[in-house]
Amino acid sequence: MLQIRPEDIERKSFEIITSQMDKGRLEFYTEDELLVVKRTIHTTADFDYQNNVIFQNNALDNLKDCIRSGAMIFTDTNMALSGINKRILTSKFGIEPLCLIAEERTIALAKKNSTTRASAAIDLAYQIHEEKLLSDGQKLPIIFAVGNAPTALIRIHELLDKYKPDFIIAAPVGFVNVIEAKNLIKQSNIPSIICDGNKGGSNVCAAIINAALLQLA
Amino acid sequence: MLQIRPEDIERKSFEIITSQMDKGRLEFYTEDELLVVKRTIHTTADFDYQNNVIFQNNALDNLKDCIRSGAMIFTDTNMALSGINKRILTSKFGIEPLCLIAEERTIALAKKNSTTRASAAIDLAYQIHEEKLLSDGQKLPIIFAVGNAPTALIRIHELLDKYKPDFIIAAPVGFVNVIEAKNLIKQSNIPSIICDGNKGGSNVCAAIINAALLQLA
């Protein structure tokens, strides 16, 4: 067993990840983008992410600006919510991320519109965003962090004429409608970090946010 | 976009997973084990899991027996905890899984013993298990579900002379001490589901428990 102090484990892990990545991919990304890509590999031990992660429309700068501006962050699962580094996000930026999937208003809306809860949670997120604007005049940026539900991305796309989010993490995992839903986000050109293909997940979604947060800490 | 009812997405996903798995691996596992393996792939879109998941010492039957007996379940992260299907686990079996990583007693113990919180949380779990036995005479099975911290597995191994858990999910992900820590669990021959190699994660750990729960639902 490698004798190593806990605080050195992460540094050592990132060294190993770097040594096992393709040279071409190490050169493809900017230095800050690489930290995001490496953190997705750190979270999965899956080197496919070096080829999968797409930064669209100056994504990382936009994501950091949103966080600095106190963005509202909505995740599609409680698992992604629980993986986000609240020590930085909440303590430093005063942001309390939200997951609306189990809210009564979401459940009622999903039933009314015969849609998924993940889809209804997008509608509710925009509603909460508007309520905040009406109550205190603050128009905060809005970030959707989607690691599970393609229907969340599909709903974001359907509502684009009316509402445009400031940032999207598009990282659902799976085999049905996942690639198609991510393609809708690519076509939108909204600043986004997209895990191309079938891969992604709540853990990957949280890892992407955390990588950005660590660059702001 | 594939027009498909939400309730059919999972069935369709599992059909696609089955069609893309290696024939040899489909034949290698029992029918119930296959449902666990397929759920890890469903959670990650990573087909390496068809080669990684080890069922040790009649694992799946033992895991189901533990759950039926109302086992205490301790996860190493809040993310794994949040991914577990409480609808079945809590409603049907009355089990409230616990994550002790952020407990004050864990933090104090980690400080006192100069160890990681994940390691200290194992000590605290055994302590809570004993307190329950003393308070109501119930000796419940104890399950550790580890998706992140190799030090949790190392601590389980260190304490084996004194305490023996009834079941272990050994699925930490990463590059430092992860393989070595999993090997300790393999050598113990305790009933376990192990994700061999570097891969695993909180999501995979929760998926394994959920796959067993769905077989009991």
TrEMBL record, chains A, B:
Isomerase found in the keyword field: yes
Keywords recorded for this protein, A-Z: Cobalamin biosynthesis, Isomerase
Database matches in Pfam families: CbiC
InterPro entries: Cbl_synth_CobH/CbiC, CobH/CbiC_sf
Pathway: Cofactor biosynthesis; adenosylcobalamin biosynthesis
Keyword presence, Isomerase: yes
GO biological process: cobalamin biosynthetic process
GO MF annotation, one: precorrin-8X methylmutase activity
Family as reported in the entry's similarity comment: Belongs to the CobH/CbiC family.
PANTHER family: COBALT-PRECORRIN-8 METHYLMUTASE
Protein name: Precorrin-8X methylmutase
Source species: Lachnoanaerobaculum umeaense
Organismal lineage: Bacteria, Bacillati, Bacillota, Clostridia, Lachnospirales
